[in-house]
Amino acid sequence: MSPTLLQAAAASFVLLSVGHTIKGREWTADPRFKTIKGTNPWTCGTLGWYQGSGFLLLTGLLHWQWSRDPTLLQDPVNKAMAGIVNLLLWASSVWYAKYGIKDTSIVLGISAALQAFGVGKACL
Q1: What pTM, to 2 d.p., does this model score?
Q2: Residue ranges per domain, the chain?
Q3: What is the pLDDT of residue 123?
Q4: Which domain of life does the protein's organism represent (predicted)?
Q5: Are the beta carbons of 106 and 92 closer than 8 angstroms?
Q6: 3-state secondary structure of 82
Q7: Is 9 helix (H, G, I), strand (E, B) or coil?
Q8: What is the pLDDT of residues 52-107, one digit of tens each?
């Protein structure tokens, strides 16, 4: 069983984390967003955005761990985590597409396919 696809998935999550952080900085710099500074939506939106970046980084580390030992994906809990991650990626891709943010939708869709293929190969 080759760990290469899982390593690629891990790298994609690290890149997603960096891209997510950059997008967050752009989003929070929007003058409309700055008008709500100090409110609950501003606080939750900002914190939630950067928590998302941390989640993507953590997910990259998880995939790296799986690439080091793909047999971990035989465990039902690890399979469930991989499935949840894949569902989140696809759902996010569709959501962004629905609201016209096509570049992000495409990147997430590619990452979802890569992750599904890598995990699927490891689970066989």
Answers
A1: 0.89
A2: 4-123
A3: 81
A4: Eukaryota
A5: no
A6: helix
A7: helix
A8: 999 999 999 999 999 999 999 999 999 999 999 999 999 999 999 999 999 999 99
Instruction: From residue 75, give the alpha-carbon distance in Å to each of 36, 69, 72, 85.
Output: 45, 12, 6, 16
Q: Three-state DSSP class for 100?
A: coil
Q: By C-alpha distance, which of 50, 60, 55, 58 is closest to 115? A: 60
Record the tokens describing residue 117, joined without a space: 């293929």
Tell me how far apart the alpha carbons of residues 91 and 75 are, in angstroms, rounded to a whole number. 24
Count of residues making up the chain: 124
The residues, any chain, with a CB within 8 Å of residue 109's CB and separated by 6 or more, are: 89, 90, 93
